[in-house]
Amino acid sequence: MRRGEKVYYVKDFIQTVPLPSPKKIYSELERLGYRGQPLARKAVSLASYRHVKRLKLLHSKNTPRANLPPRPNSILMGPTGCGKTYLIELLFGEIFKLPFVIIDMTKFTESGYVGDDVVNILVQLVYAANESIDIAECGVVVLDEFDKIAGAYSSARFAGQGTTKDVSGYGVQRELLKILEGTDVQIPLDFGFSSRGPRALISTRDITFFAVGAFSGIRNLYERKGVGFMQTLEEHSGDEDSIAYHLTEEEADDITKFHMFGFLPELISRYNRIVPFAPLHRSTLKEIIHIKIQNYQREFEEEGFKLHIEPKVIDLIIEEALKRQTGARGLDVIISKYLEDVAFETFGKSEEGEVVLTLDSGGVSHIVKRRA
Q1: Tens of pLDDT, residues 322-357
Q2: Secondary element (H or E) of residue 48
Q3: Are 270 and 180 in contact, with CB atoms under 8 Å apart?
Q4: Strand (E) positions, the chain?
Q5: 0.70 exceeded by the pTM?
Q6: Bridge partners of 200?
Q7: Sequence-separated (6 or more) residues with CB below 8 Å from residue 184
Q8: Cross-strand pairs, 356
Q9: CA-CA distance, 148 to 169, in Å (whole number)?
Q10: Which of 234, 294, 324, 329 is disulfide-compatible with 81, CB 3.0–4.6 A?
Q11: How many CB atoms sit inside 10 A of residue 288's CB?
Protein backbone atom coordinates (compact mmCIF):
# COMPACT_ATOMS: atom_id res chain seq x y z
CA MET A 1 0.00 0.00 0.00
CA ARG A 2 1.62 3.25 -0.98
CA ARG A 3 1.09 6.96 -0.82
CA GLY A 4 3.03 8.56 -3.65
CA GLU A 5 4.54 12.02 -3.72
CA LYS A 6 1.83 14.11 -5.29
CA VAL A 7 1.45 11.78 -8.14
CA TYR A 8 1.07 12.24 -11.83
CA TYR A 9 -0.37 8.79 -12.40
CA VAL A 10 -3.65 9.93 -10.82
CA LYS A 11 -4.01 12.50 -13.59
CA ASP A 12 -3.23 9.82 -16.19
CA PHE A 13 -5.75 7.47 -14.57
CA ILE A 14 -8.53 10.06 -14.53
CA GLN A 15 -7.92 10.87 -18.20
CA THR A 16 -8.67 7.24 -19.07
CA VAL A 17 -12.05 7.33 -17.29
CA PRO A 18 -14.87 7.90 -19.82
CA LEU A 19 -17.34 10.74 -19.38
CA PRO A 20 -20.51 10.08 -21.40
CA SER A 21 -23.43 12.47 -20.99
CA PRO A 22 -26.05 11.63 -18.34
CA LYS A 23 -28.45 10.66 -21.16
CA LYS A 24 -25.91 8.24 -22.61
CA ILE A 25 -25.24 6.81 -19.15
CA TYR A 26 -28.99 6.23 -18.75
CA SER A 27 -29.15 4.42 -22.12
CA GLU A 28 -26.03 2.38 -21.40
CA LEU A 29 -27.62 1.13 -18.19
CA GLU A 30 -30.55 -0.11 -20.27
CA ARG A 31 -28.16 -1.88 -22.64
CA LEU A 32 -26.45 -3.55 -19.68
CA GLY A 33 -29.78 -4.98 -18.54
CA TYR A 34 -31.09 -2.44 -16.04
CA ARG A 35 -34.86 -2.09 -16.17
CA GLY A 36 -37.35 0.25 -14.55
CA GLN A 37 -36.73 3.15 -12.14
CA PRO A 38 -36.71 5.93 -14.79
CA LEU A 39 -36.66 8.81 -12.28
CA ALA A 40 -34.13 7.27 -9.91
CA ARG A 41 -31.98 6.12 -12.84
CA LYS A 42 -31.84 9.69 -14.16
CA ALA A 43 -30.87 11.07 -10.76
CA VAL A 44 -28.12 8.52 -10.11
CA SER A 45 -26.81 8.74 -13.70
CA LEU A 46 -26.43 12.48 -13.17
CA ALA A 47 -24.74 11.94 -9.79
CA SER A 48 -22.20 9.55 -11.33
CA TYR A 49 -21.53 12.03 -14.15
CA ARG A 50 -20.94 14.80 -11.60
CA HIS A 51 -18.53 12.63 -9.64
CA VAL A 52 -16.36 11.90 -12.68
CA LYS A 53 -16.65 15.45 -14.05
CA ARG A 54 -15.49 16.82 -10.70
CA LEU A 55 -12.45 14.51 -10.75
CA LYS A 56 -11.56 15.63 -14.27
CA LEU A 57 -11.85 19.29 -13.31
CA LEU A 58 -9.60 18.70 -10.32
CA HIS A 59 -6.93 16.48 -11.84
CA SER A 60 -6.99 17.26 -15.58
CA LYS A 61 -7.86 20.96 -15.60
CA ASN A 62 -6.29 21.84 -12.24
CA THR A 63 -9.42 23.67 -11.14
CA PRO A 64 -8.97 25.19 -7.67
CA ARG A 65 -10.77 23.14 -5.05
CA ALA A 66 -12.78 26.20 -3.97
CA ASN A 67 -14.29 26.36 -7.47
CA LEU A 68 -15.29 22.71 -7.65
CA PRO A 69 -18.96 21.66 -7.48
CA PRO A 70 -19.95 19.75 -4.33
CA ARG A 71 -19.62 15.98 -4.17
CA PRO A 72 -22.86 14.27 -5.28
CA ASN A 73 -23.36 12.29 -2.05
CA SER A 74 -26.78 10.65 -2.24
CA ILE A 75 -29.18 8.53 -0.23
CA LEU A 76 -30.90 5.82 -2.28
CA MET A 77 -34.02 4.56 -0.55
CA GLY A 78 -36.63 2.08 -1.63
CA PRO A 79 -37.97 -1.44 -1.04
CA THR A 80 -35.76 -4.49 -1.25
CA GLY A 81 -34.98 -5.86 -4.71
CA CYS A 82 -35.78 -2.63 -6.59
CA GLY A 83 -32.30 -2.19 -8.10
CA LYS A 84 -30.51 0.30 -5.82
CA THR A 85 -27.22 -1.54 -5.37
CA TYR A 86 -27.28 -3.09 -8.84
CA LEU A 87 -27.45 0.40 -10.36
CA ILE A 88 -24.25 1.45 -8.56
CA GLU A 89 -22.49 -1.78 -9.57
CA LEU A 90 -23.24 -1.16 -13.24
CA LEU A 91 -22.27 2.51 -13.12
CA PHE A 92 -18.89 2.22 -11.43
CA GLY A 93 -18.03 -1.39 -12.18
CA GLU A 94 -19.01 -1.52 -15.86
CA ILE A 95 -19.30 2.02 -17.25
CA PHE A 96 -16.72 4.12 -15.38
CA LYS A 97 -14.58 1.31 -13.94
CA LEU A 98 -13.69 3.37 -10.88
CA PRO A 99 -12.72 1.75 -7.57
CA PHE A 100 -15.81 1.27 -5.42
CA VAL A 101 -16.84 -0.78 -2.43
CA ILE A 102 -20.23 -1.94 -1.18
CA ILE A 103 -20.14 -2.03 2.60
CA ASP A 104 -22.61 -3.94 4.77
CA MET A 105 -23.27 -1.44 7.54
CA THR A 106 -24.87 -3.97 9.89
CA LYS A 107 -21.44 -5.14 11.10
CA PHE A 108 -20.10 -1.75 12.13
CA THR A 109 -19.77 -0.45 15.66
CA GLU A 110 -18.17 2.44 17.49
CA SER A 111 -14.39 2.47 17.84
CA GLY A 112 -13.27 0.19 20.61
CA TYR A 113 -16.26 -2.17 20.61
CA VAL A 114 -16.61 -5.64 19.15
CA GLY A 115 -17.34 -5.36 15.45
CA ASP A 116 -15.86 -3.53 12.51
CA ASP A 117 -14.52 0.01 12.82
CA VAL A 118 -15.90 2.49 10.28
CA VAL A 119 -12.40 3.63 9.24
CA ASN A 120 -11.95 0.17 7.74
CA ILE A 121 -14.45 1.25 5.08
CA LEU A 122 -11.65 3.36 3.64
CA VAL A 123 -9.16 0.51 3.97
CA GLN A 124 -11.44 -1.67 1.84
CA LEU A 125 -11.65 1.11 -0.75
CA VAL A 126 -7.84 1.24 -0.88
CA TYR A 127 -7.73 -2.49 -1.51
CA ALA A 128 -10.34 -2.08 -4.27
CA ALA A 129 -7.95 0.49 -5.83
CA ASN A 130 -5.13 -2.07 -6.00
CA GLU A 131 -3.67 -0.69 -2.77
CA SER A 132 -3.17 2.80 -4.17
CA ILE A 133 -4.38 5.42 -1.70
CA ASP A 134 -4.18 8.12 -4.38
CA ILE A 135 -6.54 6.25 -6.71
CA ALA A 136 -8.80 5.29 -3.82
CA GLU A 137 -9.31 8.99 -3.15
CA CYS A 138 -11.13 9.13 -6.51
CA GLY A 139 -13.44 6.25 -5.65
CA VAL A 140 -16.97 5.60 -4.47
CA VAL A 141 -18.25 4.14 -1.20
CA VAL A 142 -21.68 2.49 -1.00
CA LEU A 143 -23.03 2.18 2.55
CA ASP A 144 -25.47 -0.69 2.11
CA GLU A 145 -28.16 -1.41 4.73
CA PHE A 146 -27.64 2.18 5.85
CA ASP A 147 -31.04 2.24 7.55
CA LYS A 148 -29.91 -0.50 9.95
CA ILE A 149 -27.59 1.88 11.84
CA ALA A 150 -30.48 4.10 12.89
CA GLY A 151 -30.59 4.65 16.64
CA ALA A 152 -33.64 4.05 18.79
CA TYR A 153 -35.86 7.12 18.76
CA SER A 154 -35.91 8.27 22.35
CA SER A 155 -34.54 11.34 24.08
CA ALA A 156 -32.64 9.17 26.57
CA ARG A 157 -30.94 7.10 23.87
CA PHE A 158 -30.29 10.21 21.82
CA ALA A 159 -28.61 11.89 24.79
CA GLY A 160 -26.53 8.79 25.44
CA GLN A 161 -28.33 7.91 28.68
CA GLY A 162 -29.98 4.69 29.73
CA THR A 163 -27.44 2.50 27.97
CA THR A 164 -23.99 1.32 28.97
CA LYS A 165 -22.69 1.90 25.46
CA ASP A 166 -24.07 2.68 22.03
CA VAL A 167 -22.61 -0.02 19.79
CA SER A 168 -24.90 0.16 16.79
CA GLY A 169 -26.76 3.46 16.59
CA TYR A 170 -25.72 7.06 17.02
CA GLY A 171 -22.13 6.18 17.87
CA VAL A 172 -21.64 4.63 14.45
CA GLN A 173 -23.30 7.64 12.85
CA ARG A 174 -20.90 10.00 14.62
CA GLU A 175 -17.98 7.90 13.40
CA LEU A 176 -19.34 8.17 9.85
CA LEU A 177 -19.50 11.95 10.13
CA LYS A 178 -15.71 12.01 10.38
CA ILE A 179 -15.22 10.36 7.00
CA LEU A 180 -18.15 12.04 5.25
CA GLU A 181 -17.21 15.62 6.01
CA GLY A 182 -14.19 15.67 3.70
CA THR A 183 -10.97 15.49 5.68
CA ASP A 184 -7.78 13.49 6.19
CA VAL A 185 -8.41 10.21 7.99
CA GLN A 186 -5.84 7.90 9.52
CA ILE A 187 -6.39 4.31 8.43
CA PRO A 188 -4.73 1.07 9.55
CA LEU A 189 -2.80 -0.72 6.87
CA ASP A 190 -3.50 -4.18 8.25
CA PHE A 191 -7.30 -4.20 8.71
CA GLY A 192 -6.62 -4.34 12.43
CA PHE A 193 -7.61 -2.27 15.40
CA SER A 194 -4.16 -2.04 16.95
CA SER A 195 -2.97 1.49 17.62
CA ARG A 196 0.59 0.21 17.22
CA GLY A 197 0.19 -1.00 13.66
CA PRO A 198 1.27 0.95 10.56
CA ARG A 199 -1.11 3.73 9.54
CA ALA A 200 -1.52 6.11 6.60
CA LEU A 201 -3.56 9.19 5.73
CA ILE A 202 -6.32 9.18 3.15
CA SER A 203 -8.33 12.22 2.07
CA THR A 204 -12.10 11.80 1.77
CA ARG A 205 -12.58 15.17 0.06
CA ASP A 206 -13.19 13.62 -3.37
CA ILE A 207 -14.78 10.29 -2.43
CA THR A 208 -18.50 10.13 -3.20
CA PHE A 209 -20.72 8.31 -0.72
CA PHE A 210 -24.01 6.58 -1.52
CA ALA A 211 -26.15 5.51 1.44
CA VAL A 212 -28.49 2.67 0.41
CA GLY A 213 -31.35 1.19 2.38
CA ALA A 214 -34.96 0.03 2.39
CA PHE A 215 -36.04 2.32 5.27
CA SER A 216 -39.14 0.16 5.43
CA GLY A 217 -40.19 1.33 8.87
CA ILE A 218 -40.18 4.99 7.87
CA ARG A 219 -43.74 4.65 6.58
CA ASN A 220 -44.97 4.56 10.17
CA LEU A 221 -43.76 8.12 10.67
CA TYR A 222 -46.33 9.47 8.20
CA GLU A 223 -49.93 10.08 9.10
CA ARG A 224 -52.49 7.77 7.55
CA LYS A 225 -54.84 10.64 6.87
CA GLY A 226 -54.05 13.74 4.87
CA VAL A 227 -51.24 14.19 2.44
CA GLY A 228 -48.38 11.81 1.88
CA PHE A 229 -47.60 8.43 0.53
CA MET A 230 -49.65 6.67 3.23
CA GLN A 231 -52.72 8.21 1.65
CA THR A 232 -51.48 6.98 -1.72
CA LEU A 233 -51.16 3.49 -0.27
CA GLU A 234 -54.74 3.58 0.97
CA GLU A 235 -55.98 4.76 -2.41
CA HIS A 236 -54.16 1.87 -4.11
CA SER A 237 -54.62 -0.75 -1.41
CA GLY A 238 -56.09 -3.10 -3.98
CA ASP A 239 -53.22 -2.64 -6.43
CA GLU A 240 -51.21 -5.85 -6.32
CA ASP A 241 -48.72 -4.72 -8.97
CA SER A 242 -46.54 -2.80 -6.52
CA ILE A 243 -43.98 -4.12 -4.07
CA ALA A 244 -43.83 -2.56 -0.60
CA TYR A 245 -44.08 1.21 -0.32
CA HIS A 246 -43.55 4.24 -2.52
CA LEU A 247 -42.26 7.71 -1.67
CA THR A 248 -42.58 10.87 -3.71
CA GLU A 249 -39.60 13.19 -4.17
CA GLU A 250 -41.09 15.69 -1.71
CA GLU A 251 -41.64 13.06 0.97
CA ALA A 252 -38.13 11.67 0.59
CA ASP A 253 -36.68 15.16 1.07
CA ASP A 254 -38.35 15.54 4.47
CA ILE A 255 -35.23 15.29 6.65
CA THR A 256 -37.27 15.51 9.86
CA LYS A 257 -38.58 12.02 9.17
CA PHE A 258 -35.01 10.71 9.04
CA HIS A 259 -34.39 12.31 12.42
CA MET A 260 -37.49 10.60 13.80
CA PHE A 261 -36.36 7.35 12.19
CA GLY A 262 -33.17 7.55 14.26
CA PHE A 263 -30.60 9.49 12.28
CA LEU A 264 -28.51 12.46 13.31
CA PRO A 265 -29.63 15.52 11.31
CA GLU A 266 -26.01 16.50 10.68
CA LEU A 267 -25.35 13.09 9.11
CA ILE A 268 -28.31 13.29 6.73
CA SER A 269 -27.32 16.85 5.80
CA ARG A 270 -24.01 15.48 4.42
CA TYR A 271 -26.06 14.04 1.56
CA ASN A 272 -27.22 16.60 -0.97
CA ARG A 273 -29.69 14.31 -2.74
CA ILE A 274 -32.25 11.80 -1.47
CA VAL A 275 -33.39 9.53 -4.31
CA PRO A 276 -36.55 7.45 -3.79
CA PHE A 277 -36.75 4.18 -5.73
CA ALA A 278 -40.23 3.08 -6.73
CA PRO A 279 -41.56 -0.42 -6.11
CA LEU A 280 -41.13 -2.67 -9.14
CA HIS A 281 -44.29 -3.38 -11.10
CA ARG A 282 -45.33 -6.57 -12.81
CA SER A 283 -44.37 -5.25 -16.25
CA THR A 284 -40.83 -4.40 -15.08
CA LEU A 285 -40.43 -7.76 -13.37
CA LYS A 286 -41.46 -9.42 -16.63
CA GLU A 287 -38.67 -7.63 -18.50
CA ILE A 288 -36.15 -8.53 -15.80
CA ILE A 289 -37.12 -12.20 -15.59
CA HIS A 290 -36.50 -12.72 -19.31
CA ILE A 291 -32.96 -11.37 -18.85
CA LYS A 292 -32.41 -13.70 -15.89
CA ILE A 293 -33.81 -16.71 -17.76
CA GLN A 294 -31.21 -16.16 -20.49
CA ASN A 295 -28.48 -16.68 -17.88
CA TYR A 296 -30.03 -19.99 -16.82
CA GLN A 297 -30.44 -21.02 -20.45
CA ARG A 298 -26.72 -20.46 -21.02
CA GLU A 299 -25.95 -22.59 -17.97
CA PHE A 300 -28.11 -25.44 -19.24
CA GLU A 301 -26.59 -25.15 -22.73
CA GLU A 302 -23.17 -25.70 -21.17
CA GLU A 303 -24.56 -28.97 -19.82
CA GLY A 304 -25.98 -29.98 -23.21
CA PHE A 305 -29.63 -29.06 -22.68
CA LYS A 306 -31.89 -26.39 -24.09
CA LEU A 307 -34.02 -24.80 -21.38
CA HIS A 308 -37.56 -23.63 -22.08
CA ILE A 309 -39.77 -22.09 -19.40
CA GLU A 310 -43.42 -21.85 -20.38
CA PRO A 311 -45.16 -18.43 -20.13
CA LYS A 312 -47.54 -19.72 -17.43
CA VAL A 313 -44.56 -20.61 -15.24
CA ILE A 314 -43.05 -17.17 -15.80
CA ASP A 315 -46.32 -15.54 -14.72
CA LEU A 316 -46.41 -17.74 -11.63
CA ILE A 317 -42.85 -16.78 -10.67
CA ILE A 318 -43.70 -13.09 -11.00
CA GLU A 319 -46.79 -13.55 -8.85
CA GLU A 320 -44.69 -15.26 -6.18
CA ALA A 321 -42.16 -12.42 -6.24
CA LEU A 322 -44.95 -9.86 -5.87
CA LYS A 323 -46.43 -11.81 -2.97
CA ARG A 324 -43.08 -12.11 -1.21
CA GLN A 325 -42.32 -8.40 -1.83
CA THR A 326 -38.72 -9.23 -2.67
CA GLY A 327 -38.53 -7.50 -6.04
CA ALA A 328 -36.04 -8.55 -8.71
CA ARG A 329 -33.81 -10.21 -6.12
CA GLY A 330 -36.56 -12.70 -5.36
CA LEU A 331 -36.84 -13.82 -8.98
CA ASP A 332 -33.54 -15.70 -8.84
CA VAL A 333 -34.56 -17.42 -5.62
CA ILE A 334 -37.80 -18.68 -7.13
CA ILE A 335 -36.32 -19.68 -10.51
CA SER A 336 -33.51 -21.59 -8.78
CA LYS A 337 -36.03 -23.41 -6.62
CA TYR A 338 -37.98 -24.68 -9.63
CA LEU A 339 -34.85 -25.64 -11.58
CA GLU A 340 -33.03 -27.34 -8.72
CA ASP A 341 -34.38 -30.87 -9.18
CA VAL A 342 -33.93 -30.99 -12.95
CA ALA A 343 -30.45 -29.50 -12.72
CA PHE A 344 -29.49 -32.16 -10.17
CA GLU A 345 -30.87 -34.81 -12.49
CA THR A 346 -29.22 -33.68 -15.75
CA PHE A 347 -25.99 -31.81 -14.97
CA GLY A 348 -22.60 -33.46 -15.39
CA LYS A 349 -23.83 -36.47 -17.39
CA SER A 350 -22.55 -35.46 -20.84
CA GLU A 351 -26.03 -35.88 -22.27
CA GLU A 352 -27.99 -33.67 -24.66
CA GLY A 353 -31.62 -32.76 -24.95
CA GLU A 354 -34.28 -30.29 -23.87
CA VAL A 355 -35.67 -29.31 -20.48
CA VAL A 356 -39.16 -27.81 -20.27
CA LEU A 357 -40.49 -26.17 -17.13
CA THR A 358 -44.27 -26.45 -17.23
CA LEU A 359 -47.32 -25.87 -15.05
CA ASP A 360 -49.85 -28.60 -14.29
CA SER A 361 -52.47 -29.27 -11.65
CA GLY A 362 -49.78 -30.26 -9.17
CA GLY A 363 -47.80 -27.06 -9.65
CA VAL A 364 -44.53 -26.46 -11.50
CA SER A 365 -42.93 -29.58 -12.94
CA HIS A 366 -40.26 -30.38 -15.50
CA ILE A 367 -40.03 -32.55 -18.60
CA VAL A 368 -36.68 -33.86 -19.80
CA LYS A 369 -36.38 -34.84 -23.47
CA ARG A 370 -33.07 -36.63 -23.98
CA ARG A 371 -31.53 -37.13 -27.39
CA ALA A 372 -30.69 -40.66 -28.34
Answers
A1: 888 888 888 999 999 999 999 999 999 999 999 999
A2: helix 38-59
A3: yes
A4: 74-77, 100-104, 108-109, 116-117, 140-144, 184-188, 199-203, 208-213, 273-276, 305-309, 353-360, 363-370
A5: yes
A6: 187
A7: 201, 202, 203, 204
A8: 308, 367
A9: 8
A10: 329
A11: 23
